[in-house]
Amino acid sequence: MSTTSTSPSRSLIARLWALGPVRYLTMGGLAFLFDAGLLWLLHDAIGIDLAVSTAVAFLLSFAVTYTLQRKFAFSSDSSVAPSVFRYTVLVIFNTLATTAIVWFGSVLGLPWIIGKVAAVVATTIWNYFVYRHWVFAPKKDKG
User: Fold this and answer.
1) For residue 139, what is the DSSP state?
2) Torsion sign over Cα 24, 25, 27, 31
3) Would you put residue 7 in left (φ > 0), alpha (ψ -120 to 50) or beta?
4) 91 FRET partner, CA 20 to 30 A, in 27, 35, 45, 63?
5) What letter does residue 18 receive in the DSSP assignment?
6) Which of 103, 97, 88 is CA-nearest to residue 43?
7) Whole-angstrom Cα distance, residue 52 to residue 129?
């Protein structure tokens, strides 16, 4: 009878973690908590205008999101400077989209968090494919 240090639950966690979308969603969840927490702090606790707070929180989460996705979700070996540039282009687009979605939700009379969640759902879907195929695309062999 052999004993192993790998429990069934640990094995399941390892198998799940091996899946790119699971790592992507986990890192995205952590980045979302950082972003939403900062939005709450700026808007609800300090009282800064919602549109300004949304954009500022989203932009300040730039480094956190980039690092988590690059290192843990995609284990990217792409050159840093080009991937930061591509990520910056995506962040500009996402900032405009997120701000518009949160603002539009508030115009409809919804709490800002509903708009924020809607924006996260939309950006999460398109970002996975943009990260995988453009921002953190593997280096191509020159042979």
Assistant:
1) P
2) positive
3) beta
4) 45
5) T
6) 103
7) 28
* CB contact at 8 A, 79 and 139: yes
Distant-in-sequence, close-in-space partners of 104: CB < 8 Å, separation ≥ 6: 115
Please give the structure tokens belonging to residue 24: 């992507």
Q: How far apart are CA 24 and CA 72, in angstroms?
A: 8
Q: How many CB atoms lie within 10 A of CB 105?
A: 20
Res 127: pLDDT: 93
pLDDT, position 70: 93
Residue labelled with tokens 């052999």: 2
In the predicted model, what is the mean pLDDT of residues 49-68? 89
CA-to-CA distance for 110 and 37, rounded, in angstroms? 18
Q: Which two tokens stand for residue 112?
A: 């800002």
CA distance 91 to 38: 17
